[in-house]
Amino acid sequence: MKIMLDAGHGYTTAGKRSPDGMREYEFNRVVANYAKGLLEDYQNVTVYFAHSDKRDVPLKGRTDEANRLKVDCYVSIHANAYGSNWNDANGIETYVHPVRPKKTTELAKKIHRNLVIATGLKDRGLKEADFHVLRETEMSAVLAECGFMTNREDVKQLRSDTFRKTCAEAIVKGIADHFNLRKKTDAGTSPSKNPAPLPSKKGQYKVQVGAFDDKKNADELVDQLIKRGFPAYILFE
User: Is-contact 171 34, C-beta < 8 A?
Assistant: First the structure.
């Protein structure tokens, strides 16, 4: 399984920028780095970068390399913007090419849904666009926009290392689910048939698994947890 991650733009290539000066590539490259590390925990997975921290790779160079390597999927990571001033546009949107096979749409849906649920940002939907990286790639290709650099609240998240890790985890979860990837086992070890029980303490423990502005996203996460056998519920604050 070969996967190419593309941190959109570059240090000097034109990309989006927040009104207070944050460059898009700053976000994109960190998410790509985290995603690569997570993907390498899966069996039989090789991860390539379309971008470079040493030079700005042109779009044609990125897609040509993906096609030469015959990767199985191409995921381009971006942050969005609306104009150049602060405004209310916000949320997650994911793109596929207008002419694409069903398997590409399914991959995009999984990545998009995981990003929306994990980040708690507004769901702007799955969209179509004739972007070069979606048009010129010969494999399933998806472009994810992970929040708006022109929105004061979104950009706080985009600057957060925790949020960047969250985006990487969501993208990887979508890829792993779509391609049925399996985690590596620890080298030279095997799970114990009778693991030692954890020390027990009296009382009840509760775990918060998400915090969302949009109730629809909270409802969807609760539905997923309930289907897996967990007694989940929503607490309003």
Answer: no
Instruction: Report pLDDT digits (tens) over 95-144.
Output: 999 999 999 999 999 999 999 999 999 999 999 999 999 999 999 999 99
Q: Which of 133, 122, 70 is nearest to 96 (CA)?
A: 133
- Name residue 31's amino acid: V
- Asked if 14 and 84 count as a contact pair (C-beta separation under 8 A), the reply is no
Half-sphere exposure of 209 (CA within 13 A, CB side): 18
Q: Model's pTM, two decimal places?
A: 0.81
Rg of the chain, C-alpha, whole Å: 19
Q: Where are the beta strands (DSSP E) in the chain?
A: 2-7, 46-49, 73-80, 92-96, 123-128, 140-148
pLDDT (average), residues 148-165: 97
d(CA 24, CA 51): 13
What single DSSP character describes residue 183?
B
In terms of Cα–Cα distance, which of 143, 127, 19 is closest to 82?
19
